[in-house]
Amino acid sequence: MDKHGHLAEFLQARRGGLRPENVGLPSYGERRRVPGLRREEVAMLAGISAPYYTRLEQGQSRNASPEILDAIAGALRLDDSERAHLHELARVPKRGKPAARLRAEHVTEATRALLAAMEGTPAIVIGRRSDVLAWNRQGHALFAGHLDLESPNDPGLRPNMARLVFLDAHTRDLYTDWPAKAKAVVGNLRLTAGRHPQDPLLAALIGELTMRSPEFATMWANHRIRQCDVAEYEMRHPLVGTLTAAQQTLQSPQGDGPVLVVATAAPGSPSATALTLLAHATAPPEATRPLHAAEARTT
Asked: What percentage of the chain carries pLDDT values higher than 70?
């Protein structure tokens, strides 16, 4: 599906999620054939003609100005992330310019050095399709300790966080409020699909999750957009018990490429103690063994 197919679906879903009373329109208690606003109501709220909005929603118009898109965003009560997504979906590629070929994702040496320097703090590197490209020992222990530590280094075994959240029982049990985490994953995939509508591997992932997880299929059909730079989750970890971790997503200024996800807890809190215990429990043996007297004198 191209961007304009995604645009049509997004507008239809957002329109269907609003009632007249949500936007200050009288409903007069009438029974509607379908839930949500009518196209002409959205057009009226946006200050544009109903035929033009209909063409846009049906993917037949590809020249909407930023001002018109902002007016539609206001009519549909879109938040900042959804508004940016709408502009991305409506953006017309330059004529004669082929779609940019997606580069294979990899972890730079600088990023690997950063992961090593962050030992003690859970951190993972995630690609645009939510593949785990790298993690440090604590990141592995917190998010997927049941998997092989070296699995991100093998493209054939590389974990995918979206698959883990929806299809892996261990990961699902980690989150006390699993639906909140699941919605964040789907919202992020929606943003990626808007930026890379021709990515066959992303399309295959979405197709797989839609077929194998009814919950994913329902959330995907809602077209909710969620860009979570920081989100707190209560996690039930099998080694250290319940803790609350703030998952912070750090990305390059260009906004493309792999992102670094770091988990932290409030200093001095029981959750911080739990993360410290997790780091100690998963440290390699040589890092935790006591020093002999001779070694102590040389350090």
From this structure: 85
CA distances 93 to 98, 99, 154, Å, are 8, 8, 35
The more confident residue out of 201 and 296 is 201
Note the pLDDT of residue 98. 52
Contact 223, 13 (CB under 8 A): yes
Distance CA 222, CA 144 (A): 28
Angle, nearest 10°, between helix axes 178-195 and 80-90? 30
Q: And the tokens for 22?
A: 């949500």
Cα distances from 290 to residues 142, 225, 283, 295, in angstroms, run 25, 50, 13, 10
Q: Hey, what domains does the chain have and what are their CATH numbers?
A: 3-90 (1.10.260.40), 109-286 (3.30.450.180)
CA distance 241 to 235: 8
Backbone angles phi, psi at 95, to 5 degrees: -65, 140
Residue 76 has pLDDT above 50, yes or no: yes
Position 131: which residue type?
Answer: D
